[in-house]
Protein backbone atom coordinates (compact mmCIF):
# COMPACT_ATOMS: atom_id res chain seq x y z
CA UNK A 1 0.00 0.00 0.00
CA UNK A 2 1.25 3.48 -0.82
CA UNK A 3 2.29 5.42 2.21
CA UNK A 4 1.25 9.04 2.23
CA UNK A 5 4.17 11.20 3.27
CA UNK A 6 3.82 13.60 6.15
CA UNK A 7 3.51 17.24 5.33
CA UNK A 8 3.77 19.61 8.27
CA UNK A 9 3.71 22.66 6.03
CA UNK A 10 1.53 25.46 7.37
CA UNK A 11 -1.73 25.83 5.40
CA UNK A 12 -1.91 28.96 3.31
CA UNK A 13 -5.09 30.09 5.00
CA UNK A 14 -3.20 30.36 8.26
CA UNK A 15 -1.22 33.30 6.94
CA UNK A 16 -3.18 34.42 3.91
CA UNK A 17 -6.67 35.82 3.96
CA UNK A 18 -7.41 37.37 0.56
CA UNK A 19 -10.59 39.38 0.63
CA UNK A 20 -13.42 37.89 -1.43
CA UNK A 21 -14.24 41.45 -2.39
CA UNK A 22 -10.78 42.08 -3.81
CA UNK A 23 -12.27 42.46 -7.27
CA UNK A 24 -14.10 45.56 -6.00
CA UNK A 25 -10.74 47.26 -5.49
CA UNK A 26 -9.72 46.84 -9.11
CA UNK A 27 -9.83 49.89 -11.42
CA UNK A 28 -13.12 50.41 -13.22
CA UNK A 29 -13.71 52.54 -16.26
CA UNK A 30 -10.12 53.71 -16.19
CA UNK A 31 -10.30 54.97 -12.60
CA UNK A 32 -7.34 54.07 -10.39
CA UNK A 33 -8.07 53.01 -6.83
CA UNK A 34 -6.02 54.60 -4.04
CA UNK A 35 -5.54 51.09 -2.66
CA UNK A 36 -3.73 49.80 -5.74
CA UNK A 37 -0.24 50.18 -4.29
CA UNK A 38 -1.22 48.41 -1.07
CA UNK A 39 -2.99 45.64 -2.98
CA UNK A 40 0.04 45.19 -5.20
CA UNK A 41 2.34 44.81 -2.21
CA UNK A 42 -0.05 42.34 -0.57
CA UNK A 43 -0.27 40.31 -3.79
CA UNK A 44 3.51 40.07 -4.07
CA UNK A 45 3.73 39.06 -0.44
CA UNK A 46 1.14 36.33 -0.97
CA UNK A 47 2.98 35.02 -4.03
CA UNK A 48 6.28 34.95 -2.14
CA UNK A 49 4.70 33.03 0.73
CA UNK A 50 3.06 30.48 -1.59
CA UNK A 51 6.32 30.02 -3.47
CA UNK A 52 8.06 29.36 -0.16
CA UNK A 53 5.44 26.78 0.88
CA UNK A 54 5.70 25.08 -2.52
CA UNK A 55 9.50 24.95 -2.35
CA UNK A 56 9.47 23.43 1.14
CA UNK A 57 6.88 20.85 0.10
CA UNK A 58 8.79 19.93 -3.05
CA UNK A 59 11.97 19.44 -1.01
CA UNK A 60 10.39 16.84 1.26
CA UNK A 61 11.28 13.23 0.42
CA UNK A 62 8.61 10.97 -1.02
CA UNK A 63 8.10 7.55 0.53
CA UNK A 64 5.94 5.29 -1.62
CA UNK A 65 6.27 1.52 -1.82
CA UNK A 66 4.02 1.30 -4.87
CA UNK A 67 6.29 1.26 -7.95
CA UNK A 68 3.43 2.55 -10.12
CA UNK A 69 3.44 5.96 -8.42
CA UNK A 70 5.47 8.28 -10.64
CA UNK A 71 4.19 11.62 -9.36
CA UNK A 72 2.19 13.27 -6.58
CA UNK A 73 0.04 16.38 -6.33
CA UNK A 74 0.27 17.66 -2.75
CA UNK A 75 -2.29 20.16 -1.47
CA UNK A 76 -0.92 23.48 -0.26
CA UNK A 77 -4.04 25.67 -0.18
CA UNK A 78 -6.65 25.49 2.55
CA UNK A 79 -9.40 24.40 0.14
CA UNK A 80 -7.27 21.65 -1.34
CA UNK A 81 -6.24 20.37 2.09
CA UNK A 82 -9.89 19.97 3.12
CA UNK A 83 -10.70 17.51 0.34
CA UNK A 84 -12.11 14.26 1.75
CA UNK A 85 -9.73 12.28 -0.47
CA UNK A 86 -6.69 13.47 1.46
CA UNK A 87 -3.80 15.82 0.80
CA UNK A 88 -2.09 13.80 -1.93
CA UNK A 89 -3.24 12.78 -5.40
CA UNK A 90 -1.10 9.84 -6.50
CA UNK A 91 -0.31 9.75 -10.21
CA UNK A 92 -0.08 6.16 -11.42
CA UNK A 93 -1.48 6.18 -14.98
CA UNK A 94 -0.17 7.87 -18.10
CA UNK A 95 -3.12 10.27 -17.97
CA UNK A 96 -5.25 11.60 -15.12
CA UNK A 97 -8.23 13.94 -15.45
CA UNK A 98 -9.08 16.34 -12.62
CA UNK A 99 -12.55 17.81 -12.25
CA UNK A 100 -15.91 17.89 -10.56
CA UNK A 101 -17.38 14.83 -12.32
CA UNK A 102 -14.38 12.70 -13.28
CA UNK A 103 -14.70 8.92 -12.97
CA UNK A 104 -11.81 8.49 -10.55
CA UNK A 105 -13.00 9.83 -7.19
CA UNK A 106 -9.41 10.47 -6.09
CA UNK A 107 -9.22 13.32 -8.59
CA UNK A 108 -12.62 14.87 -7.96
CA UNK A 109 -12.83 18.47 -6.77
CA UNK A 110 -16.32 19.42 -5.68
CA UNK A 111 -16.77 23.14 -6.30
CA UNK A 112 -19.09 25.21 -8.51
CA UNK A 113 -16.06 26.93 -10.06
CA UNK A 114 -14.52 23.62 -11.14
CA UNK A 115 -15.58 22.17 -14.50
CA UNK A 116 -16.78 18.59 -14.88
CA UNK A 117 -13.50 17.73 -16.61
CA UNK A 118 -11.30 20.66 -15.66
CA UNK A 119 -7.81 19.67 -16.74
CA UNK A 120 -5.59 16.67 -17.31
CA UNK A 121 -2.06 15.68 -16.36
CA UNK A 122 -0.37 13.21 -18.64
CA UNK A 123 2.95 11.68 -19.60
CA UNK A 124 4.25 11.18 -23.09
CA UNK A 125 7.46 10.00 -24.64
CA UNK A 126 9.91 12.78 -25.45
CA UNK A 127 11.96 12.88 -28.60
CA UNK A 128 15.65 12.11 -28.45
CA UNK A 129 16.69 15.70 -29.09
CA UNK A 130 14.64 16.89 -26.11
CA UNK A 131 16.63 14.89 -23.57
CA UNK A 132 20.22 15.11 -22.44
CA UNK A 133 20.26 11.63 -20.95
CA UNK A 134 18.41 9.35 -23.30
CA UNK A 135 16.74 6.14 -22.16
CA UNK A 136 14.10 3.76 -23.43
CA UNK A 137 11.54 5.02 -20.93
CA UNK A 138 12.24 8.74 -21.08
CA UNK A 139 9.03 10.76 -20.82
CA UNK A 140 7.87 14.22 -19.80
CA UNK A 141 4.80 15.38 -17.88
CA UNK A 142 2.31 17.91 -19.24
CA UNK A 143 -0.74 19.88 -18.10
CA UNK A 144 -3.67 20.69 -20.40
CA UNK A 145 -6.67 22.82 -19.44
CA UNK A 146 -10.18 22.02 -20.69
CA UNK A 147 -12.25 24.17 -18.33
CA UNK A 148 -14.40 27.27 -18.21
CA UNK A 149 -12.50 29.14 -15.49
CA UNK A 150 -8.99 28.04 -16.39
CA UNK A 151 -6.08 26.34 -14.65
CA UNK A 152 -3.03 28.15 -13.28
CA UNK A 153 0.47 26.81 -13.72
CA UNK A 154 2.37 28.79 -11.13
CA UNK A 155 0.92 32.25 -11.96
CA UNK A 156 0.25 31.72 -15.64
CA UNK A 157 -3.39 31.12 -16.49
CA UNK A 158 -4.08 28.35 -19.00
CA UNK A 159 -7.37 27.97 -20.83
CA UNK A 160 -8.92 25.70 -23.43
CA UNK A 161 -7.05 27.38 -26.26
CA UNK A 162 -3.68 27.18 -24.49
CA UNK A 163 -1.14 24.63 -25.60
CA UNK A 164 -0.18 21.82 -23.28
CA UNK A 165 2.35 23.04 -20.72
CA UNK A 166 5.30 21.00 -19.49
CA UNK A 167 5.36 20.28 -15.76
CA UNK A 168 8.48 20.31 -13.62
CA UNK A 169 9.07 19.15 -10.06
CA UNK A 170 7.92 21.89 -7.69
CA UNK A 171 5.44 23.57 -10.05
CA UNK A 172 2.21 24.90 -8.57
CA UNK A 173 -1.06 23.80 -10.17
CA UNK A 174 -4.11 25.79 -9.10
CA UNK A 175 -7.64 24.96 -10.19
CA UNK A 176 -10.05 27.75 -11.25
CA UNK A 177 -8.32 30.54 -9.28
CA UNK A 178 -4.82 31.97 -8.90
CA UNK A 179 -2.81 30.16 -6.18
CA UNK A 180 -3.14 32.97 -3.62
CA UNK A 181 -6.97 33.16 -3.89
CA UNK A 182 -8.89 31.88 -0.87
CA UNK A 183 -11.05 29.67 -3.12
CA UNK A 184 -8.14 28.13 -5.01
CA UNK A 185 -7.44 24.41 -5.02
CA UNK A 186 -3.67 24.65 -5.23
CA UNK A 187 -1.25 21.72 -5.39
CA UNK A 188 2.48 21.20 -5.80
CA UNK A 189 3.58 18.69 -8.43
CA UNK A 190 6.30 16.32 -7.25
CA UNK A 191 8.02 13.66 -9.29
CA UNK A 192 8.95 10.36 -7.72
CA UNK A 193 12.57 9.85 -8.65
CA UNK A 194 13.59 6.53 -10.15
CA UNK A 195 16.28 6.21 -7.53
CA UNK A 196 13.56 5.70 -4.91
CA UNK A 197 12.33 2.65 -6.77
CA UNK A 198 14.07 -0.66 -7.24
CA UNK A 199 15.23 -1.59 -10.72
CA UNK A 200 15.46 -5.33 -10.09
CA UNK A 201 11.77 -5.65 -9.22
CA UNK A 202 12.23 -5.92 -5.46
CA UNK A 203 12.02 -3.34 -2.72
CA UNK A 204 14.97 -1.58 -1.18
CA UNK A 205 15.98 -2.85 2.22
CA UNK A 206 17.77 -0.73 4.78
CA UNK A 207 21.36 -1.82 5.22
CA UNK A 208 22.52 -2.63 8.71
TrEMBL record:
<protein>
    <recommendedName>
        <fullName>FHA domain-containing protein</fullName>
    </recommendedName>
</protein>
<feature type="domain" description="FHA">
    <location>
        <begin position="96"/>
        <end position="158"/>
    </location>
</feature>
<dbReference type="InterPro" id="IPR000253">
    <property type="entry name" value="FHA_dom"/>
</dbReference>
<feature type="region of interest" description="Disordered">
    <location>
        <begin position="1"/>
        <end position="43"/>
    </location>
</feature>
<dbReference type="Pfam" id="PF00498">
    <property type="entry name" value="FHA"/>
</dbReference>
<feature type="compositionally biased region" description="Polar residues">
    <location>
        <begin position="18"/>
        <end position="42"/>
    </location>
</feature>
<dbReference type="InterPro" id="IPR008984">
    <property type="entry name" value="SMAD_FHA_dom_sf"/>
</dbReference>
Amino acid sequence: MAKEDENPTTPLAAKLNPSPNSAQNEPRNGCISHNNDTNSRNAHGAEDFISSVAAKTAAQPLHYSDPDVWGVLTAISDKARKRQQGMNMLLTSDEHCIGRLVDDARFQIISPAVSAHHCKIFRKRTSAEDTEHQSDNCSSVFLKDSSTNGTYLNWEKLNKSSSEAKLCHGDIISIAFAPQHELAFAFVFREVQKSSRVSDGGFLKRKS
